[in-house]
Amino acid sequence: MCPLTGCFTIKEYPAWALSLVKRCDPRRPLIVQEDAHIIALNRHATAAGLEVGMTAARARSLCPSAILLLRDAVSEYCAWEYVVEQIHRITPFLESRQPVAWFDALAPEIRETASRLRACVGFAPDRTTAHLAAVWSASGRTTVIPKQKVDTFLDAFPSRLLVEAGFSEALADGLELLGCTKLGPARRLTKRQVVLAFGKEGERLHTVLHPSASKRVSTFHPAPTVRRHFELEAPCSQAGDLLPIVSQLTERAADAMKEQFAGQIRIILHLEGRSEGRSPYHGSRVLPHPTSRADTLERFALRLGAEMLGGLHQEARASRSRHTDIDRIDLILASLMTGDLVQASLFGEKLRQVTSAVGDVHRKYPNAIKRSVVRAGAHFHEDRFGLSTWGT
Fold first, then answer.
1. Is residue 91 within a helix (H) or strand (E), and if so which, with residue range?
2. How far apart are CA 294 and CA 291, in angstroms?
């Protein structure tokens, strides 16, 4: 049996990432704006008739109840670190390229994670077909393409879905103009024809249309983290005993970060009886904003720890068993970044907010906002500067 390569991706990733970081209401429509246009939206926004590419003003007029957020590269980075850590628990063979990851594992092992994260997973003998299989999948679902069905799958794959696989709208439009609404007719074109029609992107398309054997997925090297742990001499399960330990570990970890900022907190509770095969209990929280402040990190860590202990106690009540004691606590500060990256993100966010606000005023009061104009080569000094209507 030919080994299959897995591909893990999340559709409308900017919207998914901000929903995770900001903890938005999952039942409300959510749209993400960049440069006054919508670049991503969740399924509720799609059901409300909103589309990628429309202006933010039109989207808000069509769906006033939608949550409108500005794109944030730092939030997307922290959210993807969270995703990669979830996959890395399943397999050490992982290669990541936000928002796509290739991995070496079996389909049943990844299904629960894909369902929980509403991700799309595909399996195929090569990486490019696995990526297309993931794009083909619905959110939270897995598609497996065995070797004998690869040609059939590629022939039936809609050309328009290539956009979700990283190709441009122009390429998808060009294929449809050539009558290739599915990849079957496109696969009969020669490499020279595809390159002449679409340039460098056509060369990449040809490798997708005619996949060859891919190299095996390499071992994953996690990003640096700050980790601290505490071994309990007397295992216990009460929050009053364990949360002070979480607080102490957070303070020690924050001191070790030095000039860095943390975007994610992870806690691992090791259950008593590890020799009996009990797996640790994991918890993660992506912070709304990266921080280096010990008090802020402690507040989120205590909240996460309390939620995890509450979950353990609820599981014990559901199974009518005794509370499982904990004999070790690990606290990890992850998604580390330097201050200049955080400041760059904040500057871009403020610039987008100002531009959006000015645009709103301009639409409500046309020609009311002016901008300065410098006229090069003016004969008189007072003619060098003038005012023009904003947006012209």
1. none
2. 8
